[in-house]
Amino acid sequence: MLRSYSHALDEVTKTRGQWRWTKREEAIGEEIIRIGVTQEQFMSEVVKVLKRCNQDRTRPPYTLAYFRSIWLTETKLPRDSKQLIKGLVNKMNTRYT
């Protein structure tokens, strides 16, 4: 996945920007695989995001954690209305640090 992502960055955006191949990125790639994402699913999402970044002239994701979050949110969607309301209330509450 890391090799494919680096090639996609080179081909679509013509730059790798701040993305670096590190042990952390390897761990995130392994986690994406454990979630059950195939290489084809990963690359279709990567190409879609990189093309959108080119159109909007924005910086491409500099870590694979961006893509991991896509599939984690898909698998952890609220099951019923009570969970949905609870999640919205938690997001709306002001947190003091």
Short description:
With 97 residues, this protein is mainly alpha-helical.
Can you put this structure into words, describing what you see?
The chain has helices at 2-13, 23-35, 39-56, 65-75, 81-92. By secondary structure, it is mainly α. Helix 1 runs parallel beside helix 3. The longest helix has 18 residues, at 39-56. The radius of gyration is 16 Å and the shape is globular. It starts with a helix and ends in a 5-residue tail after the last helix.
Instruction: List SSEs in N-to-C order.
Output: HHHHH
Q: What is the percent of helical residues?
A: 55-70%
Largest sheet: none
Distance between the termini: 37 Å
β content, as a range?
under 5%
Specify Rg, calculated over alpha carbons.
Answer: 16 Å
Q: How many beta-strand runs?
A: 0
| SS field, number of helical segments | 5
How many domains? The number is 1
Mean pLDDT: 81
Overall SS class: mainly alpha
Oligomeric status of the shown chains?
single chain
Shape: globular
* pLDDT < 50 runs, ≥5 residues: none
List keywords for this structure.
97 residues, globular
Task: Draw up the topology in text.
Layout: H1 2-13, H2 23-35, H3 39-56, H4 65-75, H5 81-92
